[in-house]
Design goal:
The chain has two helices and 82 strands. By secondary structure, it is mainly beta. Strand 61 and strand 62 form a beta hairpin. The longest helix is centred in the N-terminal third of the chain and has 18 residues.
């Protein structure tokens, strides 16, 4: 039994020993791969380990924890990959190496040849070219160093020298690329003038020209590379000039670098002008016997070798006074040229008196004829006055004193005054002869009595001048007037004095008088009617009136005494009754009139009638009805006829449609009528049918629609607009919703209402604020607003930043009009224009001074219009020709630092601007902080 147990135990231990053995793997070998082209690593794959022994229940997994698996990208270098196989109780590891090697050399691009610039000593010290920005140095991994041969600082001399430079570029794994390039020393420094002449004076020739000399010997020039620069002068020696001439001396070294020295040569004029005076002249004195000297410079002439516009002065000066007549004076004229050279000439002026005496009181005079209508001419010289400027005078008069002038007339009298120089003046005055003697009235009309008019109480005055006779000393024809003028009305019952006035041709008058007495001989105006019919009153009677008011009895002079038979108030009864009437009238002075007539009483009063209001009548199927008999609804009566007749039109039973007017006529026995009307209408309670437009909406504020129309079952319907908006089709509607209302009404007043809405969508409102004027090269922000939740866009968008905003910045090079387009959520569009005015820079000006000290002045190297060199290469070199900074998009940004941002020392720097297809631009910049 024990043996069996021992055997069993041994057997179990053998089994346990069997299961306790660790599994093993087939492990891959080490792997070496090259980098992927252009990458600092490679994608690496390897076969995963497989189980070799004791595989039951074993699991293989990568246990290095590095995160790299087969098929992944791995950087340059070596890593250990570890896998583990485990059966849960025992495990085994497998380690192998993956190495990614960098086998790719650095990539170097560099010009095959480089121009470098010598300094002021014609030397060039080698810089470290990898930092000069001339080429590129890149590697797929990490660059280590670039070794330059010859070394930095090596000095080469003399412009035109060529040297070979070698650059060996190493990366961090030892891969190397070597390149060679040549440098050529270039001289770009112009000669320097150490001495330049100031202003030089040269004498003029007879043609007002001076001659340029050879001034090259007056300048001193030094150059860094050329000990003997070539000197030239422009304009050349021997050139003629007038007032002044700028002369330029150019110095050019053997490498074509040029500088210049400019100075001015001035001509010197010492030749006086030749002056010619006006000829001797005779002039007249003025009213004070004086002569005011004028400016004679316009009459003088001069020639000069240089000055075409000689200035003159004279003595005595213009404005001086010379007196007397038959007297001579000398005038001297001095002509001066622009250089101050002058000459003098003179001429003689003789004063004479050419003014005649003047009359001070030469005017027309009135004198009076005598009883014979004559005038003896008196001595009239005392009536006129004479002034003379220089001497005494003699006088004469025509007609002579004592000459006889007859009648009223105008006579010309001539007065002549003559001075000692023979100047004479004649005064012509009119002598007007006047008659002052009144006419003698010999006969006049006698006193008279006249009757007033038959229609008025007046007498119309007639012309009584035919009864007047008169005589006069000068006139035979007279003008006669009377105090009661022709046509004057004189009232009856009074006496009126009349004065007759006789006027001769001179307006002298004489008078005589007589009386007119006016009396009334006209009876009152009484005219009876021709047997009229008279209307009965409400009692069928007639009351006789007072006929003085009925007939309007008048008298030419006013008051009338009236009587009639029968007397007023007498009553006459019965239609057809007749009555004789007698009338009598007498005026205030006893003139009388009378007449008689017969009246007949008649019925002249219309009946009375009263109609009912509108009558509604039942209709038939075709909307027609019959006119009813309306007599029972009409009320009528007459004063004298108890049963007046009744009639209507249309008559009862007539078939009609719609509203109809029925005429009612009442007639009495005397034929008097009265009428009224009654409207009948169908009993229609159906409203009209109306076509109503649909609601309308648009961005356009002008709407056109079909005005509603209506039809009716029993006739026509009228459509009217009943809203209070005042808008109709074709009008411009306001923004928002407008409700329109139309009402249709048929013939009997049934109505139907139609309403619809018209909506005008709000249009975007674009507004700008601010003023938009900039200098070329500057920027400005546009400030715009758009209403109504609108989207927007700008046009054009060039030179604009933030073109999707309402406040973009713009920097146009010239004046540009920008348009902002907006569209609302309802599709309403609007646009508005804004012009940015640009003060353009018309000429490129490049600054040559830089002081980047933060004071806001010359902190950057600037040019007036950098846009002119857009896309050009701008390079800046130090004094030894080393490139320190460059840009292909220059916009006034260089601040005195090199490409690495290091501040450069004070001194002179040189720039080169290269634009394709254009001449190179070179210059210097003085840097001073």
């Amino acid at each position: 039994m024990r043996r069996k147990l021992l055997l069993l135990t041994a057997s179990l231990l053998s089994i346990f020993e069997l299961f306790a053995q660790a599994p093993t793997m087939n492990c891959p070998g080490n792997t070496i791969v090259s980098n992927d082209p252009g990458d600092c690593g490679a994608t690496v794959t390897w076969a995963s380990p497989t189980c070799a022994t004791n595989c039951t229940g074993a699991t293989i997994y990568q246990s290095d924890g590095l995160g790299f698996t087969s098929g992944m990208y791995m950087p340059v270098g070596t890593i250990d990959v570890e896998y583990t196989i485990s059966n849960g109780s025992d495990s085994t590891t497998c380690i192998f190496k993956i190495e990614v090697q960098d086998t790719e050399n650095p990539v170097v691009t560099f010009p095959g040849a480089v121009d470098v610039y010598v300094d002021g000593n014609c030397d060039y010290a080698l810089p470290y070219f990898p930092l000069e920005g001339l080429g590129t140095f890149v590697d797929n991994c990490v660059l280590d160093t670039v070794i330059q041969t010859p070394a930095v600082g090596t000095v080469f001399s003399s412009a035109g020298t060529t040297a070979t430079i070698t650059l060996d570029t190493y990366d961090s794994t030892g891969n190397v690329t070597s390149i060679n390039f040549d440098i050529t020393l270039i001289d770009t420094l112009a000669p320097v003038f150490s001495s330049c002449p100031g202003t030089i004076t040269e004498p003029v020739t007879s043609g007002c020209q001076a001659l340029l000399q050879n001034y090259i010997a007056l300048v001193l020039v030094n150059d860094n590379c050329d000990p003997s620069p070539t000197l030239t002068q422009s304009p050349v020696s021997g050139t003629l000039f007038t007032t002044s001439q700028d002369v330029t001396i150019y110095a050019e070294d053997m490498y074509g670098n040029i500088d210049s020295c400019i100075f001015t040569v001035v001509s010197n004029d010492i030749v006086a002008p030749t002056v010619t005076c006006p000829s001797d002249t005779t002039v007249g004195v003025d009213a004070a016997c004086e002569y005011l000297v004028p400016d004679f410079s316009s009459l003088a002439s001069a020639t000069d070798n240089c000055d075409p516009s000689i200035s003159f002065s004279q003595l005595p000066a213009a404005g001086s006074k010379l007196s007397g007549y038959n007297t001579s004076y000398f005038i001297s004229m001095t002509g001066s040229d622009i250089a101050g050279n002058s000459s003098v000439c003179s001429f003689e002026v003789t004063l004479i008196d050419t003014l005649a005496p003047t009359f001070t009181n030469c005017k027309d005079t009135t004198l009076y004829v005598n009883h014979n209508c004559e005038l003896s001419m008196p001595n009239l010289f005392t009536y006129v006055g004479v002034n003379e400027n220089c001497s005494s005078i003699t006088t004469s008069q025509i007609p002579v004193v004592g000459s006889i002038i007859s009648g009223e007339t105008i006579t010309n009298v001539f007065f002549t005054a003559t001075d000692n120089s023979g100047n004479s003046e004649t005064c012509i005055m009119d002598i007007i002869t006047v008659d002052t003697t009144s006419p003698n009235v010999v006969t006049c009309p006698s006193d008279m009595t006249v009757s007033s008019s038959s229609t008025s109480c007046d007498y119309e005055v007639v012309d009584y001048s035919g009864g007047v006779f008169a005589t006069d000393n000068c006139s035979s024809v007279f003008t006669i007037t009377q105090s009661e003028s022709v046509g004057t009305l004189l009232t009856a019952g009074s006496t009126y004095p009349v004065i007759m006035t006789v006027m001769d041709d001179a307006g002298n008058t004489g008078t005589c008088s007589f009386d007119i007495t006016v009396v009334d001989n006209t009876a009152p105006d009484l005219s009876c009617p021709v047997n009229p019919s008279v209307g009965a009153n409400s009692n069928c009677e007639y009351v006789i009136p007072s006929y003085d008011t009925v007939l309007n009895i008048t008298d030419n002079c006013g008051t009338v005494i009236f009587s009639q038979t029968p007397v007023a108030g007498t009553i006459i009864s019965g239609i057809g009754t007749q009555q004789s009437i007698s009338l009598f009238a007498e005026d205030a002075v006893g003139n009388q009139s009378s007449c008689s007539f017969t009246i007949t009483v008649a019925d002249t009063t219309d009946p009375t009638v009263s109609c009912p209001g509108t009558q509604t009548v039942a209709i038939s199927g075709n909307c027609q009805y019959s006119i009813p008999d309306l007599s029972s609804l009409v009320t009528f009566s007459d004063l004298c006829d108890a049963s007046p007749s009744y009639a209507q039109s249309p008559g009862a039973g007539v078939t009609v449609s719609g509203i109809t007017t029925v005429n009612i006529i009442i007639t009495d026995a005397a034929g008097n009528t009265a009428s009224c009307t009654v409207e009948t209408q169908p009993d229609d309670q159906t409203p009209p049918v109306m076509s109503c437009p649909s609601d309308m909406a648009s961005c356009d504020s002008v709407f056109t629609y079909n005005t509603p129309v209506a039809t009716d079952n029993c006739g026509s319907a009228t459509v009217t607009q009943t809203d209070a908006t005042g808008y109709a089709s074709g009008d411009t509607f306001p923004e928002g919703i407008t409700t329109l209302e139309y009402t249709a009404t048929d013939d009997v007043g049934n109505t139907e209402v139609c309403t619809f809405n018209i909506e005008v969508y709000p249009t975007p409102v674009i507004s700008f604020s601010g003023e938009y004027l900039i200098e070329e090269g500057d920027s400005i922000q546009i400030m715009a607003t758009v209403t109504n939740d609108s989207t927007f866009s700008w046009s054009p968008v060039y030179n604009m930043t933030g073109d999707t905003t309402l406040t973009p910045w713009v920097s146009p090079n010239s004046t540009v009009t920008y348009t902002l387009y907006a569209i609302s959520v309802n599709g309403c569009e609007a646009e508005s224009e804004l012009t940015v005015e640009v003060n353009q820079i018309l000429e490129q000006t490049i600054n040559n001074f830089l002081s980047p000290n933060g004071d806001g002045k010359n902190d950057f190297w600037t040019m007036s219009k950098p846009s002119l060199i857009s896309g050009c290469n701008v390079s800046i070199f130090d004094r030894w020709g080393k490139l320190i900074w460059e840009s292909n998009a220059y916009n006034n940004q260089w601040d005195g630092k090199n490409s690495k941002g290091t501040e450069m020392p004070d001194g002179t720097y040189f720039y080169k601007i290269t634009c394709e297809g254009e001449d190179e631009i070179n210059g210097s910049i003085l840097l001073m902080r």
